[in-house]
Write a structure and sequence with these properties.
- The chain has helices at 90-96, 115-129, 141-153, 168-176, 188-200, 212-218, 220-233, 248-262, 284-291, 317-326, 336-348, 355-369, 391-397, 408-416, and strands at 18-22, 28-29, 46-50, 86-88, 100-105, 133-137, 156-162, 180-184, 205-206, 239-243, 273-279, 330-334, 378-383.
- The N and C termini lie far apart (60 Å).
- It folds into 2 domains: 86-111 and 215-397, Rossmann fold; 115-212, Rossmann fold.
- It has 14 helices and 13 strands.
- The protein is α/β, with parallel strands linked by helices.
- Bound molecules: pyridoxal-5'-phosphate and ligand LJ64HWYM.
- Ligand LJ64HWYM is lined by residues 115, 136, 138-142, 188, 208-209, 245-246, 248, 308.
- Pyridoxal-5'-phosphate (PLP) is lined by residues 113, 139, 141, 209, 243-250, 308-309, 354, 356-357, 384-385.
- Catalyzes the gamma-elimination of phosphate from L-phosphohomoserine and the beta-addition of water to produce L-threonine.
- Its cofactor is pyridoxal 5'-phosphate.
Length: 417
């Protein structure tokens, strides 16, 4: 696990032991002088770096801010977020046939997805920068989180959504939390291109996962999984399986593990294998892994019922591909039917997730069937968003309501049929 070294020296103007470094050319930048999303020299992705990396003993409290020692600030605009359940799923575990299977349900965050972890940190940075408008492109969840956290902070929010391709619950959230919603005649990747241009023009502060501080919040998923799993099993999971869209979580979890290794709190051999899952109709990361590419090829035409991961140009690919390879993981594409089936299976065991989230389960099943995942592995599947985010998908995947007369005897008769 040597790619993307964390070693760099702070620039002169580094604030309180934190700075930004380009993952391509190594240039370092002061973090809070002005909004910066990419390297001014080579356009590479930026990553937050710290003077010191904490060990588990440095963490205290609950939720995202438990990990303040690994974040750029002590606290932030919080609703609060993180501290999500690591569900047991005994029937699914037996069916898949692994040593242990847990489901880390990020749908239990305040706005119903993992984006809240990134937003609590990202909006804190926005306050530090003194910006007056926050913006994002979104397949839905980022917009809901941005609207809620921006609203809480009292800052104007603007979201660009691919018209007709965002689940109803997410649009409702962004609307009610007060975001200005622009529906764009184009896919998510086109929306992100426009928002990035607006941000570069100084029209808004961009809070997609291109923003390195979003990923600082999201890396706490990795810390939390390791701590909770260790507490229950006295060992770390072998593998973490996660849905991949813009590839922010893959990059963030990899960073969490590299930081712990750097701090001497985790052996390289203990780092879980990061295993990404995409829908067949939007699988540029899988293509890049299978073909040994250093970056993804942009897919112009993407389609999947898992609208949250309907993404053809994962902005974090250059961070996430080394994460998958460097941990000995892999990536796999799954059919929409397998995603829906996995969503139903999880729901029947009490865990309600949106379709994109269920991709992790569908991917695990596929990798077990192919023998890529062994039966003696400890696995954690990440489920990223709540079932109610996409009520239409849930209704379509679930049982149909049965109309009955307003009469007890008739209902008993109906139940006996
Ligand atoms: C519910 C859900 N799952 C998974 C993803 C993919 O996560 P990432 O972009 O971090 O790969 C997203 C958004 O991209 C999402 O909204
Ligand atoms: N699924 C995402 C897509 C944008 O991802 P981001 O992590 O880069 O903000 C969404 O919910 O919009």
């Amino acid at each position: 696990m040597t790619e993307l070294s964390l070693g760099s020296s702070p620039p002169e103007a580094a604030a309180d032991g934190v700075w930004l470094a380009c993952i391509e050319c190594g240039r370092t930048l002061a973090p809070f002088d002005e909004p910066t999303y990419r390297c001014p020299d080579c356009d590479g992705l930026l990553e937050a770096r710290y003077e010191e990396y904490p060990t588990f003993e440095d963490f205290s409290g609950r939720g995202v801010w438990r990990y303040a020692a690994a974040l750029p600030f002590e606290s932030g605009v919080s609703l609060p977020e993180g501290d999500t359940p690591l569900h047991e799923v005994p029937r699914l575990e037996a069916d898949v046939g692994v040593r242990s299977l847990r489901v880390k349900h990020e749908g239990m965050n305040p706005t119903g997805s993992f984006k809240d972890r990134g937003m609590t940190v990202g909006v804190r940075v926005a306050q530090e920068l003194g910006v007056d408008r926050l913006a994002c492109a979104s397949t839905g969840n980022t917009s809901a989180a941005l609207a809620a956290y921006g609203g809480r902070a009292g800052v104007e929010t603007l979201v660009l959504l691919p018209a007709g391709k965002v689940a109803a619950g997410k649009v409702a959230q962004a609307a009610l939390h007060g975001a200005r919603i622009l529906e764009v005649d184009g896919n998510f990747d086109a929306c992100l291109d426009v928002v990035a241009e607006l941000a570069n023009m100084g029209e808004a502060y961009l809070l997609n996962s291109l923003n390195p501080f979003r990923l600082e919040g999201q890396k706490t998923i990795g810390f939390e999984i390791l701590e909770s799993f260790l507490a229950e099993y006295d060992r770390y999971p072998d593998r973490i399986v996660l849905p991949v869209g813009n590839a922010g979580n893959t990059a963030a979890l990899y960073k969490a593990f590299r930081e712990l290794v750097e701090a001497g709190a985790l052996d390289e051999a203990e780092v879980p294998m990061l295993t990404g899952v995409q829908a067949e109709g939007a699988a540029p990361m899988v293509e890049a892994i299978e073909e040994g590419l250093d970056d993804t090829r942009r897919w112009e035409d993407v389609e999947t019922r898992a609208t949250a991961i309907r993404i053809g140009n994962p902005v974090n690919a250059r961070k996430a591909l080394p994460g998958i390879r460097g941990t000995g993981g892999t990536a796999v594409a799954v059919a929409d039917e397998a995603i829906v089936d996995a969503q139903r299976t999880l729901a029947e065991e009490g865990v309600g997730v949106e379709p994109a989230s269920a991709a992790s389960i569908a991917g695990l099943r596929k990798l077990r069937e192919s023998g890529t995942v062994d039966d003696d592995e400890d696995v954690v599947c990440l489920t990223t968003g709540h079932l109610l985010k996409d009520p239409d998908a849930a209704a379509a995947a679930g049982r149909d309501p049965e109309p009955v007369p307003n009469d007890t005897e008739a209902i008993l008769g109906h139940l006996a049929e």
